[in-house]
Amino acid sequence: MRGLERTVRTGPKLRLSADTILADALLSELVAPGPVLWVVSAWISNVEVIDNTQGSFDDILGDDHMTHYRLVDVLAKLARSGTPVRVVTRPTTHNQLFVDQMKAIASDDADLAVVFDPVEHEKTVCGRDWMISGSMNFTASGIGANEESVRYVVDNVEVAQARIDFVARWGGIR
C-alpha cells in the first residue's frame, strides 16, 4: 500500500493518546508480519499496548488468555513466531530493564536483537508496510501523558527506505 498518512497531536489538552494507533499497528503486524519489526526509541518501557479484556483479539493473540498485553509480550510473541525484532535504544538502566524483561519471556531461538546506541534519539516503530514516528518515546508518559506529535504512515516505499536506513545505521544486528 502506498501513501496513507496521518499526524496526530496527543496529550491531555487534546484528550488524545497514541495508544490505539500503536495497538492497531502491532495487531496488524501479528496478523501479517513483515520482514522485520524495528523499534527505535531513546527511552522505552514495558507499557500496556493491547487491551484484550473483552477477548476481541483472542483469534489474533492465540491461547495466551491474557487480558492486557504489554510491549514486551507483543515483541516476544512476534520474535517467537519468526519475525525478526530489532530494538535500538540508549544504554541506560531504565532501558536495560525493558530489554531484560523482553528477553526473559522470549524463547532462546526467538529472532530478537538489541543495540544500545548512546546517541540514539529517534522515535520510530516500523512494521510490514507501516511506520509510527515522531516525538513520542515508547513510555507511559510518551504514549499517554505528554504532549506529542505522532505521524502514522502506511507506505511500502517509505517503510522500505526506513528499514534500509536502519540497517545502514545499525547493521543486521545479529
From TrEMBL:
Residue ranges of domain Phospholipase D-like in the record: 66-170
Domain of life of the native organism: Bacteria
Protein name, entry field: Phospholipase D-like protein
InterPro entries: PLD-like_dom
Cross-referenced NCBIfam families: DpdK (NF041068)
Originating organism: Saccharothrix variisporea
